[in-house]
Design a protein that fits this description.
The chain has about 170 residues and is an alpha/beta fold. It has one domain: Rossmann fold (3-Layer(aba) Sandwich), CATH 3.40.50. The chain is built from 7 helices and 8 strands; from the N terminus they run E-E-E-H-E-H-E-H-E-H-H-E-H-E-H. A 3-stranded parallel beta sheet has the order 3-4-5, with helices on one face. Strand 4, helix 2 and strand 5 form a beta-alpha-beta unit. The N and C termini lie far apart (about 40 Å). About 25% of the residues are buried. The model has no long low-confidence stretch (mean pLDDT about 85).
């Protein structure tokens, strides 16, 4: 059983897809679709960022985008007005539940995340959906992360037509 605030889930091997999703776009939807195709038990966790504006209507839009899909939605991180690095909450989960889904841009910056070394050492799996990451850089990052945690499983999912879409670029419009 996973307990994150008010979130209680039955699947013992849930995979967490967190981010500001500000705004949600086809690339995010593709991440969800690939996770479901891969048979993952997915928990979508929108979160706040001091650099991005995520409004209540964005949560409702996100819920509508996920409606009818077999995913769990946890908006509890949005209710706190404080920093919420992944390491703060994921270390409270069982080892079977310490898996993340992310785009390759997030994967390439994982070593810069808060307490990144500890985070990598406790992760079980990372599922990486392609964006526009350089193949050689992705390989180097994989090797570096595996040097920190040799038991970590890293799965690269398939290319898709929405790799060029970025929330940052959409916010600039």
């Amino acid at each position: 059983m996973i307990v994150l605030g008010h979130l209680k889930l039955a699947p013992p091997e849930a995979v967490f897809f967190s981010g500001t999703f500000a705004p949600w776009h086809e690339g995010h939807a593709e991440c969800v679709q690939q996770a479901l195709t891969f048979g993952l038990k997915l928990v979508v966790c929108p979160d706040q960022s001091p650099w991005k504006n995520f409004q209540v209507h964005d949560v409702e839009e996100l819920k509508m985008q996920l409606a009818g899909k077999p995913v769990w939605f946890y908006a509890g991180f949005l209710q706190t007005n404080e920093r919420n690095p992944t390491i703060f909450w994921i270390k409270n989960l069982s080892s079977e539940q310490r898996s993340l889904l992310m785009g390759d841009d997030a994967f390439l910056s994982l070593h810069k995340w808060h307490e990144a070394q500890e985070l990598v050492q406790i992760l079980r799996r990372i599922y990486v959906v392609p964006r526009l990451g350089d193949k050689n850089e992705l390989q180097k990052q994989q090797e570096m992360l595996l040097s920190l945690n040799s038991k970590l499983e890293i799965h690269f999912l398939t290319h898709h037509p929405f790799e060029h879409i970025s929330s940052s670029l959409l916010r600039e419009k």
